[in-house]
Amino acid sequence: MFFFRINKVKIFDNREKKKFLGIFGRDLAQVKFLSFVSTEFSAFPDLSDFLNTNNAEEKKAIIKKEVENVIASRIFTEIQNVKDNHVMTFGDTGFVLYQSAEIPVFFDWQFIAFESDERIRDTGRMVEDILNDNEFDKFTNNLGTLVAAAANPAFSASVEITKFALKVISKITQANKDEMIGILMMSLNRVEHYPHGERKKDDVPDLTNNMFIDYSLFGF
């Protein structure tokens, strides 16, 4: 068995705009999390059809199905009343974001937090936004080249599709005046990072240095 847990998140700036000329400090924010995990056990349809066809519409249809799988597997949580320098602790044992029957050889995690007063889109709407993005055609073409050369096509496709989905979701939040709080992109492998099935890290900074995260892996 293998378990991946998030234990704590610290947010320095909640991105909520000041009111009353800052006299009362920052307002409380609603923070939303999206978490995507990819391993060699990620469930995706057979990629052979994608590689063997030259039909652009067929390629898009296959990618659409994979995007739906990626979005459906997300973990979504909303935390209210978040202030600057807020520390979120997920109990005394952490919260499991991913588990599998076997210890994965490859492990890729992407985590995004944003402040929002808007109602989150449902899965179907989010998928459509990704498919209608003006960079989707270019992404589809590049994915074919990358997957064809990859040692593990399913894992590579999972990682790249997740990255693209997060990129589009980030644009959506900005368009809706939702403020990006932080984004973490992390790749691990068993031999280098958790040879004995365990890893625990605290205060891992995200790409913006606005968010610190504690996480742990445990496998047996």
Automatic annotation (TrEMBL):
<protein>
    <submittedName>
        <fullName>Uncharacterized protein</fullName>
    </submittedName>
</protein>
